[in-house]
Design a protein that fits this description.
globular; Neuraminidase; mainly beta; 311 residues
């Protein structure tokens, strides 16, 4: 038992961890950066030291600077949820669940434009999370929590792709989910992962080309709280080795690129989403209910080029 404990607390060498205390495994040091929000989500790091995150009920997007200054980046954010930086365009993309669109903001927070508003003439249910590929296309999930399929504008819970360009087409690339939530690409962008809120199964899709997916496969099953079943996850991020970090009721569940469970990182509040950032790219920023936390990792997070083609 003691040997198993030592392996679990180290999360197989991925994290800087504390020592054993009272014979019980210690978790990686978790630092609370800010608190006092209503429900924080969608952390995004811009590579210049700034962290953006949304406070959904307050319809705000906040910005935390490298020197620790917290400002309101955007008021009246349309209850924005997931955020992602489009490096090619120098804009912050957001899933606005309240307005039912994917929007893009200038990095001063003053300008807004709609990126994706509808599919086949019908508005989306409530865009939730997104990831941008190196071609500049946007994959995003479109659930609608608290609604059955009959009351959804789109009639299904699905994943969409908005192609790059000013007038990029929107296509439905996958459906048949139990509330698709978090979405992420592998570092080589050959695999798309989708986390469900209504199921412990995390799906993986081969990316045949931007906006075209192959047959899905089961990537992993999330560990369940004691005595519970069917509990899914929320957001996720990936490191440069392809390891996934998925937010769940138990904390951050960590899985290797092959889908092998590597441990759970406990967070003081139930985490909603996570991203890598910091000067060296080795800090996990976690949005969890009323607070934002930071966890140091030994492995650097993957930084997507997001619309910025390789030279």
């Amino acid at each position: 038992m003691r040997a198993r404990q030592r392996t679990s607390i180290a999360v197989l060498g991925l994290f800087i961890v504390g020592a054993l205390a009272d014979g019980k495994p210690d978790t990686p040091p978790v630092k609370k950066l800010r608190t006092g929000f209503r429900f924080v989500e969608g952390p995004a790091f811009d590579g210049a030291g700034n962290l953006y995150f949304s406070d959904i009920p307050n319809a705000r997007i906040h910005k935390l600077t490298p020197d620790g200054k917290l400002t309101v980046f955007r008021e009246k954010s349309g209850r924005a949820n997931g955020l992602f930086l489009h490096r090619g365009r120098g804009e912050l993309y957001a899933c606005e669940g309240g307005t039912g669109v994917v929007a893009a903001y200038s990095l001063d927070g003053k300008k807004r434009r709609v990126v994706a508003a509808s599919y086949k003439g019908k508005r989306f249910n409530a865009p939730n999370d997104l990831v941008i590929d190196r071609a500049g296309g946007v994959y995003f999930t479109d659930p609608k929590f608290g609604r059955d399929r009959k009351s959804l504008p789109q009639g299904v819970w699905a994943v969409y792709y908005r192609a790059s360009g000013t007038d990029g087409d929107v296509s439905r690339v996958a459906d048949d989910f139990k509330l698709p939530n978090g979405i992420m690409l592998s570092p080589d962008e050959k695999t798309l992962y989708v986390v469900q809120s209504g199921s412990e199964i995390v799906w993986a899709f081969p990316v045949e080309k931007p906006g075209t997916l192959g047959k899905r496969r089961e990537f992993c099953r999330l560990k369940q709280p004691q005595g519970q079943t069917g509990r899914g996850g929320d957001g996720l991020t990936v490191d440069k080795e392809g390891t996934l970090y998925i937010t769940t009721r138990l904390g951050l569940q960590v899985f290797s690129a092959k889908g092998k469970a590597r441990g759970v990182i406990a967070i003081p509040e139930t985490p909603a989403n996570v991203t890598f950032g910091g000067k060296d790219g080795r800090t996990l920023y976690v949005t969890a209910r009323t607070s934002v936390y930071a966890v140091r990792a030994k492995v650097r997070g993957h930084r997507f080029r997001a619309g910025k083609p390789a030279r």
